[in-house]
Design goal:
By secondary structure, this protein is mainly β. It is 7% helix and 47% strand. Strands 1, 3, 4, 7, 10, 11, 12 and 15 form an 8-stranded antiparallel beta sheet that branches. It has a 4-stranded antiparallel beta sheet with strand order 17-19-23-22, with no helix packed on it. Strands 18-26-24-21 form a 4-stranded mixed beta sheet, with no helix packed on it. The longest helix has 12 residues.
Length: 317
């Protein structure tokens, strides 16, 4: 055991600032996709509530404490907000540039960064990524004032409440924090590619379980796929399934099965619990002695790696 030392060099840590805000409206499929930059973000106040002890008494003494459920809420302030936030603020665009207020408010996710500083590196020491899920904005006042000799930009403010999402091995949560000074830099870079997007891949807010997978697993290898039946296979059973096996967990795909003539074959696609094995079950038996194509496109893994497009062709028995 070593002696306690206060204010050692490099240990005078502090946290400051808020920047790189991004909004992720909740989509109909339950995913936080199509993220957009939130410019003009000035303040995010996190306000946990609950987790209060309730004393229980027996035998004329304090017997135990029961703790209430903790909830996560907060306040978001900004000089402006992205157009996509209008639906989250209860507005619907009925014509270009014309919005109607007091409508149902859409749930959203939010990410932002705060700087980590110390006495050696200043604010370049590192940063924290804050991720918020299941947020619902409450109505708030908007004050418009005349321009005077001390003009100020209008500042908008929203109180938010949240609905927690599931996390394996933990209680449901509405908040995650990733510390850049403690996590693997390659895995953090992979997460940021997902959060902020790349050319051809839209930014999205991954759910907590996916983020846990990223940081718990080993550094990802390049995305690959193998198929059953294999390319150029013959005598494939007309009632059989197609199985694609990937080496990394898959986040999304746009795989198609077609006839050689280009007709799309209706199928049902199912991933196993690992998210790596995709079973493609045609809705009806395939035609005998016919060539079919499996076009593997739009495949992105949880590390935001994109698989090069390829085609597997096979002939039924």
């Amino acid at each position: 055991m070593s002696k306690i030392i206060w204010d050692d060099t490099g240990k005078r840590l502090y946290e400051t600032g808020v920047k790189q805000g991004a909004l992720y409206p909740l989509q109909g499929d339950g995913a936080y996709s199509k993220g957009v930059a939130w410019n003009g973000l000035t303040n995010v106040t996190e306000k946990p509530s609950g987790a209060e002890a309730s004393a229980q008494y027996a035998d004329d003494i304090k017997y135990l404490n029961l703790v209430s459920t903790e909830e996560f809420g907060g306040t978001v302030e900004a000089f402006t907000y992205p157009d996509e936030f209008a639906a989250c603020d209860g507005s619907v665009e009925v014509a270009t540039g014309v919005t109607v207020g007091q409508q149902n408010r859409k749930l959203f996710g939010l990410s932002y960064r705060t700087a980590l500083g110390n006495d050696v590196d200043g604010t370049d020491h590192g940063y924290k990524l804050h991720l918020i899920y299941g947020a619902l904005a409450s109505p708030s006042e908007k004050e418009y004032k005349t321009v005077n000799d001390k003009p100020e930009a209008i500042s908008f403010s929203w109180d938010i409440t949240t609905t927690p999402v599931l996390v394996v091995g933990c209680k449901p949560t509405a908040s995650l924090v990733i510390d850049s000074t403690k996590v693997d830099s390659a895995k953090l870079a992979a997460l940021e590619l997902i959060l902020y997007g790349t050319d051809g891949v839209e930014p999205r807010l991954p759910l907590p379980n996916e983020i846990v997978d990223i940081f718990k697993n080993a550094t990802p290898t390049a995305l690959t796929v193998s198929s059953v039946p294999a390319d150029e296979a013959t005598a494939v059973a007309v009632g059989g399934n197609l199985v694609l096996t990937f080496n990394n967990k898959i986040a999304k795909e746009s795989i198609l099965v077609t006839s050689a003539a280009g007709a799309i074959i209706p199928v049902t696609k199912t991933f196993d619990v690992t998210g790596k094995i995709l079973t493609i079950d045609p809705n009806a038996d395939l035609t005998a002695a016919t060539v079919y194509l499996v076009t593997i496109i739009g495949v992105v893994d949880i590390y935001n790696q994109t698989l090069a497009a390829s085609v597997v062709n096979f002939t039924t028995a």
